[in-house]
Every structure is written in C-alpha cells, then in structure tokens.
C-alpha cells in the first residue's frame, strides 16, 4: 500500500490522497462504486411546479363583518354535508359555472369583478392548504370561458372559514387548538381573509378565538413570509391529485346537464352521503382521531342526559360526532360483549370486528356475562341461543337488516341508534 500523502496538518489531506492509499486490488472496485452513486432529490427545480403559478402570500386579514357588496360563492353546503375534498372543489366549480351561465353577457364582467369565494377549512392541515391552492389554479380556467378579453387577470379574493365540523362539546378548550391549526392552514394556503368561527356563542370563546389570529399574525409574524409551500413535494403531489380529481368531477357534472340538473337527479346528495358515511365510519373506528372526542376521551356517564334530545337537535349548526359517540357511550351503563356462532359470513365477522374496534376506540370495554350481546352466526343457532338466554338483549349482526328482527344491524352506522333504543328500554324498565 502506498503511504498516505499528508501535509503538516492531517485535515488537509485531499480526496486524491485517500484514493492513492487504497490497496491496488481494491482500487478499481472502490472507484467504480464511487462513480455509481447517484442522489435523486424528491423535488427538482426544473420539475413542473404547480404551486409556482400562484402569487406570493397575500396580506391576510380577519373578517369581522360580512361584505354584502360581494357576490359570494361558498363551499359551505358541501362541506357541512360531509363532502370529500375533491367533491367540495368539483361541486363548487359546477355551482359557479351554473351561476355564470345564468348571467347575461353585459352582467358577467361586473359579476366576476365582485366575485368572492368562501372556502371552509378544517383540521386536515395539508388538505386545507391544497384545497385553497387548487381553487387559485382552477378558478381562472372556469372564468376564461365566459370572458372574451384575453389578457384579463383574475384575482378572485378567497375567504377561508374555519370549520364547524371539528367543533366538539367535549373538552371545549381543545377546540382552540383545532381552530389554531385551521387558521395556520388558511394563512399558508394564501387566503385573502379568514373568518374564525368561535367554538361556542360566548364572549370568552369569541375573545379567545380572535386572539388565535392576533397571536399568529402579530407575534408569530406568519403572514410576513412568502409562499412557503413552494417546492414542498407532498403538497405538490396532493395539489395535483386534487386538481385532476376535482376537474374530472366538474366535467362529469357538466356532461350530465350542469349543476341544477345534477341536483335534481339526486346523484349529488347520494355521492356526498357515501363520503359522509365513510367519514363517520373512520371516526368511529378510530382511523380518524379527534383528541377528546374519540381519542383520550374522559367519559362523564350522565353527560348525555343533561340535555333532552330535542334541545340537542336544535343546537347551532355544528357538524360533529358528539351525539353519535354519546349514544354509543350509553353502553357504559350496561355490560356488553360480541359473540360469533358458527355459520357467520365474512361480512358479518368483519362488521363484528368493527363493532369491537369502535366501542374500544371510545373507551368502552366488553365484559363477561354481558346483558347486551352483538351476535352473528347461523340463524337457527342464533334463535336457539336467544331461546336459552331470554334475559339477554341481542343485536343481530346480519348481511341485510330484516323487519322481523327487533334489533339488527348490517352497517357500523346503525350502531348508535340501536344502542340508543336499547338503553331507552332499559331506563323505562
């Protein structure tokens, strides 16, 4: 081996000095290996940068009073019903297109100049940022179809509104953390205005909610940064995915006669209902977590009975899962278990697992010798079991619900209402 050529200081050795010190029989191998190493970054400067089209961050301000002079198009209806991100964007674009088609030519330019978009954002942090960015990208595409002036710029103000879907009655202070996440998403997503909806209609809740914005705006100085999402690989991919999906959905609505006709067919409500059921199922299975609601929840046994059902149904418009979970929590007042007999189908076994996961995810433990049993299996065996155990309340887990069975379920979404009925009977006794 050649001696390593060094200067007076060891740390001044060059790369060629180190290569010369490698034994002759390994030299070719090491050099070849060295030349084969390549580092591929996740994001390239010359790669198509979907977010670079958007201007740097606008000056964000808190909305305190609504501007009645603006023509407002909102995602509220779709968001509150439980639509997915793609559905919110696609249906809102279809709604806007429908409104534009209804305008006379001499009204269009004035309408577009006064147009403002209202976008509801929630604790899906990256999804909310991307949703705002997608609207920035797709709105001009829609508007250019209605304006003949080629070089007209479209700078439609976007107002982000914090969601009521993520407001919970349980541990209300946690709502402040959720609202903070939503406001940050709105600021990073380049909304022009942010409307922060307090988690309850009290002076304290309103003051604390407004403080969120002021802390982020004046102490964190978040709005002073430029477009900080540029070059973010994950957001690039998510934004592109939402763009493609929402545009395909928009074209689907347009090809079916437009927004009004699509609503009249009932397809829009059906599609949103499917997404809503999925989101409820994910929430109840613990796949989507809200701290204090279905994760790290502190249960108060009599809390559900503090208000009657009529009062709960007429509370302010808050789309959340509190009542759903409270109904399930009534099982805390009884002992329960799941039982699978021979003859159960795969679908029934999967549903039984979902029941277990759901009830365990909100802190309810199944107990031996239970009063309430969720049971699946061959019909004869279930009937025989019921005959031998007349004091137990049986909820049949079946592929299809039959009118003959007093208590039966074929989907996880049937669970809370069944428990509610069972517990009502228990209380009456």
TrEMBL record:
Domain Methylmalonyl-CoA mutase alpha/beta chain catalytic residue range list: 45-310
An example molecular function term from Gene Ontology annotations: cobalamin binding
Entry superkingdom: Bacteria
InterPro entries xref list: Cbl-dep_enz_cat, MeMalonylCoA_mutase_a/b_cat
Name recorded for this polypeptide: Methylmalonyl-CoA mutase alpha/beta chain catalytic domain-containing protein
Organism: Gottfriedia solisilvae
Classification lineage: Bacteria, Bacillati, Bacillota, Bacilli, Bacillales
């Amino acid at each position: 081996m050649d001696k390593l050529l060094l200067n007076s200081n060891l740390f001044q050795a060059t790369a060629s000095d180190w290569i010369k010190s490698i034994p002759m029989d390994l030299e070719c191998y090491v050099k070849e290996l060295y030349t084969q190493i390549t580092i591929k970054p996740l994001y390239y400067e010359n790669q198509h940068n979907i977010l670079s089209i958007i201007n740097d961050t606008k000056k964000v301000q808190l909305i305190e009073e609504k501007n009645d002079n603006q023509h407002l198009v909102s995602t509220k209806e779709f968001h509150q019903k439980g639509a997915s991100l793609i559905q919110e964007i696609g249906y809102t674009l279809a709604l806007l297109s429908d409104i534009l088609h209804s305008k006379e030519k001499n009204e269009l330019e004035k309408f577009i100049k006064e147009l403002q978009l209202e976008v509801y954002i929630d604790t899906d942090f990256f999804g909310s940022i991307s949703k705002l960015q997608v609207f920035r990208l797709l709105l001009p595409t829609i508007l250019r179809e209605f304006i003949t002036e080629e070089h007209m710029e479209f700078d439609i103000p976007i107002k982000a509104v914090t969601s009521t879907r993520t407001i919970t009655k349980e541990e209300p202070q946690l709502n402040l953390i959720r609202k903070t996440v939503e406001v940050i998403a709105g600021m990073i997503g380049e909304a022009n205005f942010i409307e922060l909806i307090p988690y309850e209609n009290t002076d304290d809740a309103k003051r604390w909610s407004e403080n969120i914005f002021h802390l982020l705006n004046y102490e964190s100085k978040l709005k002073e940064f430029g477009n900080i999402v540029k070059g973010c690989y994950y957001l690039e991919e998510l934004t592109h995915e939402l763009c493609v999906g929402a545009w395909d959905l928009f074209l689907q609505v347009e090809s079916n006669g437009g927004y009004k006709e699509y609503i009249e067919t009932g397809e829009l409500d059906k599609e949103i209902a499917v997404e809503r059921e999925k989101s409820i199922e994910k929430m109840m299975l613990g796949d989507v977590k809200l701290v204090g609601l279905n994760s790290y929840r502190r249960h108060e046994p009599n809390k559900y009975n503090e208000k009657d059902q009529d009062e709960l149904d007429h509370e302010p418009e808050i789309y959340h899962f509190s009542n759903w979970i409270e109904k399930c929590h009534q099982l805390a007042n009884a002992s329960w278990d799941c039982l699978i007999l021979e003859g159960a189908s795969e679908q029934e076994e999967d549903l039984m697992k979902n029941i277990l996961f759901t009830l365990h995810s909100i802190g309810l433990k199944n107990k031996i010798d239970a009063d309430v049993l969720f049971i699946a299996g061959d019909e004869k065996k279930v009937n025989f079991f019921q005959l031998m155990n007349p004091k137990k309340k049986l909820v049949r887990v079946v592929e299809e619900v039959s009118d003959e069975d007093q208590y039966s379920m074929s989907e996880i979404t049937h669970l809370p209402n069944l428990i509610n009925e069972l517990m009502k009977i228990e209380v009456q006794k």
